[in-house]
Amino acid sequence: MIEVQNITKSFEGTEVLKGISTVFEKGKTNLIIGQSGSGKTVFLKCLLGLFEADSGKILFEGKRLKKMSVKERSVLRQEMGMVFQGSALFDSMTVEENIMFPMQMFTQKKNEEIRDRANSVIKRVNLVNANEKFPDEISGGMKKRVAIARAIVMNPKYLFCDEPNSGLDPRTAILIDNLIQEITEEYNITTVINTHDMNSVMEIGEKIVFLQNGIKAWEGNNKEIFITENEAVTNFVYSSDLFKKVRLAYLEEDKRGSTSA
Amino acid sequence: MKILAKIGKYFLMLKSVFGKFTKWKILKQLILKDIDTLIIGSLGIVSFISFFVGGVVAIQTALNLENPLLPKNLIGFATRQSVILEFAPTFISVIMAGKVGSYITSSIGTMRVTEQIDALEVMGINTYNYLIFPKIVALSLYPLVICISMFLGVFGGYIACVYGGFSSSTEFIEGIQMDFFPFHITYAFIKTAFFSFILATVPSYHGYFMTGGALEVGKASTISFVWTSVIIILLNYLITQLLLT
Questions:
Q1: Do B124 and A74 touch (CB under 8 A)?
Q2: What are the chain B neighbours of A72 within 8 Å (beta carbons)?
Q3: What CATH class has A2-79+156-229?
Q4: Are A78 and B22 inside 8 Å of each other by CB?
Q5: CA distance B92 to B230
Q6: Å between A171 CA and nearest CA of chain B
Q7: Closest-CA residue of chain B to A111
Q8: Mean pLDDT across the stretch B195-201?
């Protein structure tokens, strides 16, 4: 579980995060949504420890990130998996080497054991015939799968994803979303996803935090987002006609269901 | 003020390079890879330039020795002095700032813009040590490159001089043995050791701390070349002043 208490962050006098508090629960896919420039990436980087919050607290299983020693922080980082927006695979390594890398770096296991574990994860993310390929030889969807495999190879406690399905076709995007959700449940990890994708919001948003101008404007789940009256959320989520129709259909069905009950 | 902040940032980076060390098994592979790219990969161009510039130095000296009273062995002497004292250590280092320096800046810079450095950091790796330390170790072999450059420079001078008909082989060899101070070699290698450190760290700094996209990677490489060259030239002056006067 990750607990965030009233964090703020400024860059050169501009306040990007203005006192955000929330809880990201274990075994759930937690989504951070919001317009571009709303502070999502900064918030995610604060959680990862890549940026230090100016004030407030970030607690991992009750332990405050800021108060952790270098060693504790190092251990925590080994318990984190991260899927970057551009996948951030190492160009000079093959797919298999990319996935083996965290284990080679942090475990004393033999190369054969590491290879076996990497191959089991490769199988888990449904990657086929890609082991010996380099990142520039595979598609965007495959890169995301490799990034997910690399993120989970060490059995992390926390999985962070920065727009994991940006730049993917709708079908692949859904597959990646489902894969992340399955892994979250299977490994019982705390997953935090930064996304713009409304399909993801509707499909896998077990907890959704909506940011607007650095403020947490709303939080709920993918059921509550249909019925919320919060104007900021509805303007953002239902900005397209298609989603407006989806919402209306949901509300009508919900109404019918409650009437018949 | 800004430049002072940058110098401070550079020294803080150096401190972090020697901070938490990467696992030796991984580091060893990175060092060997960097030796191959930065040292072995530079031998061709360094050999080519050294041989021909050595030849040109010998021809220029020969053409300027108009006075018949001046002995022909001065051609060998002047070639040796120019190559050993300045051409090999300094001129080749400036060329290496372009070749090796740009490579280091652009490779680290690309890792920065594609979030590969962030990925390493999230894993809990000391990215300074992982990325920069192998380059420092690899470039500690740089004096070997300069040694080859010295030999080929003088050899190029010999070929140009003897086969160009400017002096006899005996006169040239006599020239390169004349008034030889072994300390000049020591001086050249002291300079080279400093330059190798600059060649590894200054381009790394520019790559590591760059911001922006692909265009900025190109800009960072150019800026890195300029600053590495400037620092090499200034350091050359300082070391010469300290060691030879």
A1: yes
A2: none
A3: alpha beta
A4: no
A5: 14
A6: 25
A7: B25
A8: 96
**Closest chain A CA to residue B33:** A92
What are the φ and ψ backbone dihedral angles of A56, each rounded to 5 degrees?
A: 95, 180
- pLDDT for B112 equals 94
Specify the range with the lowest mean pLDDT, choosing from A137-141, A172-176, B229-233. Answer: A172-176
pLDDT at B113: 93
Q: Name the H helices within chain B.
A: 2-17, 24-34, 41-64, 73-81, 92-96, 102-113, 116-122, 127-139, 142-163, 169-177, 182-208, 214-244
Residue, of A121 and B35, whose pLDDT is higher: B35
Residue among B137, B136, B116 nearest B125 (CA): B116
Least Cα separation, residue A123 to chain B (angstroms): 22
Residues 6+ apart with CB under 8 A from B229: B94, B97, B98
How does residue A260 score in pLDDT terms, banded at 50, 70 and 90?
A: low
CA distance A87 to chain B (A): 8
Nearest to B26 among A80, A86, A104 (CB): A104
B124-157 pLDDT per residue, tens: 899 999 999 999 999 999 999 999 999 999 999 9
What's the CA gap between A84 and A140, in Å, rounded? 12
CB contact under 8 A, A86 and B22: no
Q: How confident is the model over B218-241, as a mean pLDDT?
A: 95
> Is A85 within 8 Å of chain B by CB?
yes
A86 min Cα distance to partner chain B (Å): 7
Tell me, yes or no, if A11 comes closer than 8 A to chain B by beta carbon: no
Distance from CA of A77 to the nearest CA of B (A): 5
Cα separation, B84 vs B76, whole angstroms: 12
User: Complex ipTM above 0.85?
Assistant: no
Inter-chain CB proximity A73 and B123 less than 8 Å:
no
Q: Which chain A residues are within 8 Å of B22, Cβ to Cβ?
A: 105
pLDDT digits (tens, 9 = 90+) for A56-68: 999 999 899 888 8
Domain ranges of chain A: 2-79+156-229, 95-154
When pLDDT is averaged across residues A105-126 and rounded to a whole number, the result is: 89
Contacts with B112 from chain A: Cβ below 8 Å: none
pLDDT for B173 equals 94
Residues B155, B95, B234: CA angle, nearest 5 degrees: 110
Task: Scan for tokens 């006192």, then name that residue.
Answer: A19
How far does CA B24 lie from the centroid of its chain? Answer: 27
Of A88, A89, A92, the CB nearest to B118: A88
Query: Which residues of chain B are within 8 Å of residue A73 when distances are taken between CB atoms?
Result: 124
Overall residue count recorded for chain A in this entry? 261
Domain ranges (residues) in chain B: 21-244
